[in-house]
Amino acid sequence: MSEPILSISGLSKTYKGGVKALDDVQLDIRKGEIFALLGPNGAGKTTLIGAVCGLVRPTAGTISAFGHDLAIDWRAARARIGLVPQELSTDMFETVYRAVSYSRGLFGHPPDKARIEEVLRSLTLWEKKDSQIRELSGGMKRRVLIAKALAHEPELLFLDEPTAGVDVDLRKDMWKQIAALRERGTTIILTTHYIEEAEEMADRVGIIRKGQILMVDDKDAIMQRMGRTEAVIELSEPLAELPASIAEFPVELREDGQELCYRGGDGAGGGREDVARLTKALIAAGIDYRGIDIHDSSLEDIFVGLVSEQEAAQ
Ligand SMILES: Nc1ncnc2c1ncn2[C@@H]1O[C@H](COP(=O)(O)OP(=O)(O)OP(=O)(O)O)[C@@H](O)[C@H]1O
Predict the structure, then answer these.
(1) In this structure, which residue's CA is closest to atom 4 in ligand 1?
(2) Is 41 in the pocket of ligand 1 (CB under 6 A)?
């Protein structure tokens, strides 16, 4: 792998009250990727972002970005890192246009009216450019946050729960914006509760819980390794036991022998092929069925499974 754009090593954070929000986190982010950090409430996602963006002082560990150790050379990296936080903390009396163009200047970029107009138009904020931020609806305020980050043109962009509580239209607009940013070469780390979002956007996924990274992998690899196909086959007549040609599949009889349940596969289509072979074997064994309900597990199922497994193990 080429030199990571962001490298986090042994990162821990214990807050004053004693809450251990991060516990020995190791994480390398590759240039140009979209990385989704998934975790339940209180897992430490915002703390991790805060540590990289200079808002939270780590208790231990090192963070380097673009080859600079942030504890030593914060300024060199700062202008290249952008953050879209969960909430707007800018001056509510500022107009949309000024807030967005100011953000660009703040990070040392020369004024660029065309760029600001493009950003505002792409987020349907152009008509509101002269409104004060306090006059906007919650969804519009979120758009301003995103516009500020886009105007800044960072190389590494953090999006903290970018679509929490926004409507479907804005979520779709944002997905488009994020895809366009990646096209420009921006590296993106997003935290999300919406697993659909990670599934849609991410190249890699990290799962965090209680301040620890449980797993990091390519999204497709996670799906393949942990993905499952489940098929419920409703039999025409109840079966007392399975013939050998059926029992060799990963199946079990349920509902007093009226249902045959298959669980297997690799999350990459293998399970569906297996179910097709299973149905042929049923026909060959003279077993009739009324219907099949088949589905592949999503990243959501995998995530819920992983987190509850960890809970059970404790
Ligand atoms: N300033 C603080 N002082 C004390 N404890 C804090 C502080 N900020 C966060 N915590 C605690 O640290 C833990 C991690 O919080 P964090 O906000 O990083 O989680 P998160 O994964 O972002 O959660 P969410 O999805 O709810 O935003 C939680 O137990 C939280 O209560």
Answers:
(1) 15
(2) yes
Residue 39 burial class via C-beta count within 10 angstroms: exposed 0-12, middle 13-18, buried 19 and up: buried
- State the distance from the centre of ligand 1 to the C-alpha of 22, rounded, in angstroms: 9
pLDDT, tens only, 157-215: 998 887 777 778 878 877 888 888 888 889 999 998 777 788 888 999 998 989 999 88
Residue 19 C-alpha to ligand 1 middle, in angstroms? Answer: 8
Atom of ligand 1 nearest to the CA of 13: 12
Rounded to whole angstroms, how far apart are CA atoms 38 and 305?
13
Whether ipTM > 0.90 holds is yes
* Equal CATH topology for 6-224 and 228-296: no
Ligand 1 pocket mutation, candidates 47, 159, 194, criterion most atoms within 8 A of CB: 47
C-alpha distance from residue 179 to each of 119, 145, 175, 202 (Å): 14, 17, 6, 10
Cβ atoms 202, 298 nearer than 8 A: no
- 20 C-alpha to center of ligand 1: Å? 9
CATH architecture designation of domain 6-224: 3-Layer(aba) Sandwich (3.40)
- The domain made up of 228-296 is a member of CATH 3.40.10: no
pLDDT at 1: 53
